[in-house]
Design goal:
78% of the residues lie in helices and 0% in strands. The chain has helices at 3-35, 37-64, 74-85. The longest helix has 33 residues, at 3-35.
């Protein structure tokens, strides 16, 4: 699996965890008047757990995400440089 594929997977996981956090929080607000504080507290606890999970996955993604330019794909950038100049060398010799 490439770094770009890992990055996309982790970003998808972060978005899913944030959506789960929001859904659990809304559920706790809706259930609070009807079922009491215990049920609402349970859902808030799970929402906090999902939020912490999203933060941890986001930190992991920070170190996994591809480096480079806008495309994030160093191979594509090197091929473009080689096609343009005939070389992948990016710095002048001193």
């Amino acid at each position: 699996m490439t770094r770009t594929a890992w990055h996309r997977l982790l970003v998808t996981l972060v978005v899913a965890l944030l959506a789960l956090t929001a859904a659990l929080w809304v559920t706790s607000v809706v259930l609070a008047p009807a079922d009491g504080r215990n049920t609402a507290g349970l859902f808030v606890g799970w929402a906090m757990f999902a939020l912490v999970g999203a933060i941890v996955v986001g930190i992991v993604d920070f170190f996994v995400r591809p480096l480079g330019g806008r495309s994030g794909d160093a191979d594509v950038m090197a091929e473009a440089e080689e096609a343009r100049t005939g070389s992948t060398r990016t710095q002048q010799r001193r």
